[in-house]
Every structure is written in structure tokens, then in C-alpha cells.
Amino acid sequence: MPRPAIIDKLTSNSDIVICDNDISLQTHKELFSFKDDAYIKLHLTNANSYQLYHKIEPSDVFFYTFMEILDSLNLVPDTHPFRIHCVVNWEHLIQVALWDLQTPTPKEVIEIISTTGLGDNELRHINSLNVNEIFKYLLYEIKRFDIFRKICHYAKRQIRIRLANKSNQVSCYLASSSTKTIVASSL
Description:
The protein is an alpha/beta fold. The protein has helices at residues 3-9, 22-32, 48-54, 61-73, 90-98, 106-113, 120-126, 131-141, 145-161, and strands spanning 15-19, 39-41, 83-88, 169-176, 181-185. It is globular, with a radius of gyration of 16 Å.
């Protein structure tokens, strides 16, 4: 989405919702009922030309487009404060929390989770899991929503650091495609 189009969205909204897929968009919309033009869905499935232009891997398109949107939002005058809602899946939430271009590895996920208060037994158990299995383990087996909330706060902090206008507010939400719900947030 071109920079002027993003800035134009703020003329009729005080909230901008950045979503990584249709499920994220729909789950947020069901909870908050913002106008359609408040939502920005990152088009990650049709990213071939973007990849060629920027010479990046398909898995890196999310982070590049996300950073471009934040850069665009930084062009909004300080006289027009707004709220950013970041609604993303597990892998993208970790990517924002780590502020890392690359898709997170299981080791990186374990490192960030180890800072959230997960016990040694649980950490040993997830040591052999892939990124999505770690999410399912935390969600279904041990039901550690507090871990998800802390990671939402880490992501929120990373976004706030990069905003030019520090009075703009940020909320991060973890959306699950399996449950089609928002699992946790930084609220």
C-alpha cells in the first residue's frame, strides 16, 4: 500500500489495524467493529514482485511490509495522534517481538519464552519442538496465556521504540488460525 494511502486512512480514523492475514483481520473486526478503512491487511501471498524488487526471501516479506507501514505512519504529523493495532499470528508476533527480519527459529522462540517465566520442565519439553508445535503446546497442553501476553508486550515495546510520535498508542494481538480467535493481547 503506497504511503499516501496509509496516511489517508488516518484522516477518517484514529485507529489503524495492521493484520497479517484474513483470520487476523476478521477476529479483530469481530471484537472491535472498526470501520473497514481502518484495516490494513498485508498481502503476503501475492508478494512475488515485492520479493524480486527487494531481493528478499518469501518468508521475509511480512517484516519488510510491516516496517514500511510503520515508516509511513511516522510521516503523520504529531498533531494527529493515533493508535496502532498489530494483529498477527504466532510466527509474526515472535518476529516483531525480536525485531528480526528472518522467520524465527525454534531456538529464538525458546530464548524469548525463557524470559517470560516458563519453568525449567516446560522449557526442556519445548526444546525439541518446532515453532508451531511450541505455540500449540503453550496454548493447548499447558494453557500459558500469560506467556502469550508477555510476548505481545515485547512486540508492543518494539513497535513503540520505532514510532516518531511517542504519544501514539500501540496494542498487539496474537490471532490463532486454528481457533479463529485472538488468543492474547498487550491490553
